[in-house]
Amino acid sequence: MSNRRTFAIISHPDAGKTTLTEKLLLQGGAIHLAGEVKARGAARRARSDWMKIEQQRGISVTSSVMTFERDGVTFNLLDTPGHEDFSEDTYRTLTAVDSAIMVIDAAKGIEPQTRKLFEVCRLRSVPIITFVNKVDREGRSVFETLDEVADALALDVVPMSWPIGLGGEFKGVLDFATNTISRPEGDSREFLGKRTLADDIPAAIAEEIELAQGGYPSFDLEAYRHGDLTPVYFGSALKNFGVAELIDAIARYAPPPRPQPSDAGTIEPDGKEVTGFIFKVQANMDPQHRDRIAFMRLVSGTFKRGMKLTPSALGKPVAIHSPILFFAQDREIADTAEPGDIIGIPNHGTLRVGDTLSENNKVRFTGLPNFAPEILRRVALKDPTKTKQLRKALDDLSEEGVIQVFYPELGGQWIVGVVGQLQLDVLISRLEAEYKVEAMLEAAPYDTARWLKGSDAALKAFTDFNMATLAKDRDGDPVFMARSAWDVSYQQEKNPELVFSATKER
């Protein structure tokens, strides 16, 4: 199991995450051409951005899984959406990783979405390697960037490399471990593999390096794996500086599969029973076949193709005949999988986000919540005869975590809830592209939603007086549709025996 490294890349949009993903895959031998980044139009995207709206906008809005091997180590890279509107999908993806790479733009430093994603990692003590990108462009001083990471994120920082000049003065990146410099080559000033010993560094840079090596702590593996320290690498994903060192760092320092929390206590990866959990469901990855893939993080045991596992929501065993290993939308059948691996399980709606799969059905993994939506809209069909197709589409997309869907107890129009505006654009785009359903979104009279928890008697009493503001989610659980935050507080005060929850854990 020690040769598995399951990690995610987190960043603010435009910090270079997608480009770095592509270069990691290139270095790992998973792809053989890096031309997509330089190309124009539809080709200007990494292989992980396969959805139509992603191709049009040049952004990642869904999490992809890519598995590759290098020097005997199996890397499972989970590419997460950088856009803040998809924070819920990203949060769930981060429950499935053992470490993360945080990408920071050398000129902009720590941006809001980076900070949010970092906090999610901190909640789960996910260790982080920092990659300061775009050092071949004009940027802030290296010390300023390091100090910001230390101060804003309350982390010890340890520079593992150092840029020799920034922007127009960029002469390469010094690797402290080998005392060699990766230098720009050719007209495009890329790193093509030639390293030279660090013997002609400008005096000003040499002074910086001396200060850095004396002023920051030494790398401490235990502190890093505990989430208290971050090793910092400098480079340019576009020009290929620092990427090989980053892969080496993940292989050398990032933890192997970690134990996972469950209602039966912590489940260790060396346990004999096969267990795992579903952190993502994706429909229509292959539009030709209308497929539906559940992504499972294997927690313990050795999975073998064809074995029977019991999903917690179903209660009866299911034989898994065609488990999949991914390279973005390319795939191959997995005969075996080890803890830390991510496998795809084709299914027709039987597996949902948050489900635990196990041989004995005696364990439930915890910590995969839904969050209260921040934007609510009514869905109106342009063609009323497509009601059935719309219901299917909304169920599918809510299962994936793209949206949440609420069915009001009174009134016909269904309501969708999202964290950000871009999710609504994705909803309309995918309804049309994948389900051939044209729909419009109209303002809803509600501001937010809260899941109701309490005794049957308390729920019935509340329902009798508030039917007009009640809905069911796709699980059939009761939801209070609130017109304002004040509305939530008022009802909470009036009904102390009920819990109005902003999260729902599966």
Describe, in plain words, how this protein is organized in 3D.
It comes from Novosphingobium aquiterrae. This is Peptide chain release factor 3. Belongs to the TRAFAC class translation factor GTPase superfamily. Classic translation factor GTPase family. PrfC subfamily. Its main location: cytoplasm. By secondary structure, the protein is an alpha+beta fold. The protein has three domains: 4-64 and 82-253, P-loop containing nucleotide triphosphate hydrolases (Rossmann fold); 275-358, 3-Layer(aba) Sandwich (Rossmann fold); 369-505, 2-Layer Sandwich (Alpha-Beta Plaits). It has 13 helices and 31 strands. The strands form seven sheets. An eight-stranded antiparallel β-sheet has the order 26-23-25-24-28-29-27-30. Strands 2-3-1-4-5-11-6 form a seven-stranded mixed β-sheet, with helices on both faces. A hairpin with a 4-residue loop joins strand 8 and strand 9 (180-182). The protein is globular. The relative contact order is 0.11.
